[in-house]
Amino acid sequence: MDHALVKRLRQEVGDRLAQQRRLDAAAGLPPMSGEDERQFARALIGQVLEEYARGEIAAGRRPPNAEEEEALAAGVHAALFGVGRLQPLLEDPEIENIDINGCDRVFIGYADGREVMGEPVADSDEELIELIQVLAAYSGLSSRPFDTANPQLDLRLPDGSRLSAVMDVTVRPALSIRRARLHKVFLSDLVGNGTMTEELARFFSAAVAARKNIMIAGATNAGKTTLLRALANEIPPHERLITVERALELGLDAFPDLHPNVVAFEQRLPNSEGQGAISMAELVRRSLRMNPSRVIVGEVLGDEIVTMLNAMTQGNDGSLSTIHANSSMEVFNRIATYAIQAEERLPVEATHMLIAGAIDFVVFIEKRNDYASGGRLRRFVSSVREVTGCDGRVLSSEVFAMGPDGHAVPSAPIACAEDLARHGYDTSLGGPW
């Protein structure tokens, strides 16, 4: 496809669309809905392509045939409402990660572990920055700046993928997109793809039903958010859920058949004058005033940890969250590190007491290249640790530990076994003790 032509046609359609918006506003008409605007844009694209074809004929050149015209129309529409040349990558169900180090250095990671070099996504780094700025303006709940004064950006794309971009702190603009391949996911799906055993799935189902507070830990791209979604989908539909995230990603509100009563909060960054910011910690506090059955914090990365732990100890049982860590045991020190940096400046001893009173289970999910099967990437739950108390530091027991094939298998008695038994989990089935 001639990307320069797509860019020119997109500019023409965009100008006509903007002109129609101005005319509607001058006539006192309400603005078009998103779907109406898309339909109107399709009509404009048809007009512009027809004019282009007539111009080519008048100049003695061959006009685009039906197949080429269809491809041009799709390209212009993607440039207007999608993500330009990124669109085909986001539509490929096998692509899991897209890393871009400048407009022409595109690295694509597939679900089976393959890494390949892709085609350029823009003609210049400046055009790449413009593309990111358009996404920042129209994705999420509020416009997010991306410029020399705001060189970092995190947001969720319309398809649910997570985008992180930087400029000026790197030689060339760079962005990473992590695909949300499994949105409507259940524990049975994760058993089917080898993430966990049936025994562990029964345990998780009972733990969620028993309203246990669960922290999911793992490395980047290990599958923490996918596991959190699967656990959330065990929550009964009558419960009111409030999610708190830096950038909307969980998307539980997108499935009203599973969760009809969901409020999704997104952190708001300051404007160009440094005003209007709303932090994760503030949103967690606000969520407690909105009658939640459960509060779900998408990812803990900072001072919101103290507010979240306090929420878990104030009757909001059944909360879920994720955190970056290298093992289930390391989670406690990671939380303590965040708490020391928080506004409350909690000492380590107080933090460990708070953890012991708030968290019931820590789940560790890891990713590993299985070289025996050609380097295929595996993701699996390898450890579940139960918090049992505090004696200066958090006391815990690894109730599921890594088995011979990596999967977590029962390894120690569960202290809250009676609670889980009331929700259908029989601890006598798999324990070696």
Automatic annotation (TrEMBL):
PANTHER family: TWITCHING MOTILITY PROTEIN PILT, TYPE IV PILUS RETRACTATION ATPASE PILT. Residues 89-355 form the Bacterial type II secretion system protein E domain. Gene3D superfamilies: 3.30.450.380, P-loop containing nucleotide triphosphate hydrolases (3.40.50.300). Keywords: Kinase, Transferase. InterPro entries: P-loop_NTPase (IPR027417), T2SS/T4SS_dom (IPR001482), T4SS_GSP_E_ATPase (IPR050921). It comes from Actinomadura rubrobrunea. The keyword Kinase applies. This is Protein kinase. It comes from the Bacteria. Pfam families: T2SSE. Signal peptide: none annotated. GO terms for molecular function: ATP hydrolysis activity; kinase activity. Belongs to the GSP E family.
